[in-house]
Amino acid sequence: VADRYRHENAILTNIRKARDEAEDPEHKRRAAELVDIVKDCIRRHTQLQSRLLEAGPLFRAEQDRQAFATPAAHAGLDLYGQLLAPLLPLPVEQSLRATDAFFAHGTGLRTPTSVRVGDLVDLLLTPPLEREHLGMEMPEPDLIATPDDSRFSDAQLSSAMALLDLEHDAPRRLSGLLAEARRSDPELPYLVALLAVHAASPPVGTAYRQGERRLLFAVDDGTELDDPEFGGADLIVGMALLDAAGMAADRKEAS
User: Is 182 within 8 Å of 188 (Cβ atoms)?
Assistant: First the structure.
């Protein structure tokens, strides 16, 4: 602030010099306006500097006052133990008196509004505004058809799902599934491998909520995958049977 104060004083000196040396009346008028603006800036910065100098002692005094202030003599209200818990078993008619008294005192003073006859007449005589229940009309969006950039077709997805539609008591190795998929379509093993990797973390909760009867799963038992295109673990891929009715009964008993 002190640096700004010195800079503004230097600016004020230069503007005054330019005003005194100017011969054009318009230039003199503009220079005089600038002098008033810079004076106002200097005055504001002087006030700011004085407030900054007072802030330190004021802060320390307020801090001391709060640190050494005596605690409040009255005890606080336990909302749960003194208000909520005693009122929960009571009927609504009996609990209204206590809740109304609590909120009336807790919200503080409220100034009652006085009704003016002129305002009341204007409100009664003003015709009602027409309201649109559905809101403003939404503009029609410009839809752009996105190109189909999916790598696999619907037929390939159907083939992969049919290949992974296993019996619940007959799981298979991923290597065997990849070899069988490669015999029918050279691109199909990539889709089968992708579905098998996703099955390593099956969404059991989602399947239960949707009422699914079967769920594809994959387990790694440490066997290495022997495949010309893929590496990693030779997963055991299988189909698990879900007891949706039993799961719903368990949730009902838990609740």
Answer: yes
CA torsion through residues 105, 107, 111, 114, sign: negative
Cα–Cα distance for residue pair 196/232, rounded to 1 Å: 12
Extents of the domains making up the chain: 2-67, 154-254
Amino acid at 142: D
Cα–Cα distances in angstroms (integers) from residue 221 to residues 148, 174, 233, 234, 239, in the given order: 38, 12, 8, 8, 16
| Measured distance CA(136)–CA(133) in Å, rounded | 9
Residue 173 three-state SS: strand
Q: Which two tokens stand for residue 181?
A: 């998929």
Scan for tokens 């083939």, then name that residue: 159
Q: Quick one: which of 237, 230, 241 has its CA closest to 177? A: 237
Distance of CA 127 to the CA centre of its chain: 41
What lies within 8 Å, CB to CB, of 180 at 6+ separation is: 163
pTM above 0.70, yes or no: no
Residue that has been written with the tokens 């440490």 in this structure: 222
Tell me how far apart the alpha carbons of residues 206 and 198 are, in angstroms, rounded to a whole number: 14
Let me know: does 208 contact 242? Beta carbons within 8 Å: yes
Question: Could you read off the pLDDT tens digit of each residue along the chain, which spans 255 residues?
Answer: 677 778 888 888 888 888 888 888 888 888 888 888 888 888 888 888 888 888 888 888 888 888 887 776 666 677 888 888 888 888 888 888 888 888 887 777 777 677 777 777 887 888 877 766 666 777 887 878 777 667 888 899 999 999 999 998 899 999 999 999 999 899 999 999 999 999 998 888 888 777 788 899 999 999 999 998 999 999 999 999 887 666 656 656 655
CA trace torsion 137, 142, 143, 149 (10° rounding): -150
Distance separating alpha carbons of residues 114 and 124, to the nearest angstrom: 17
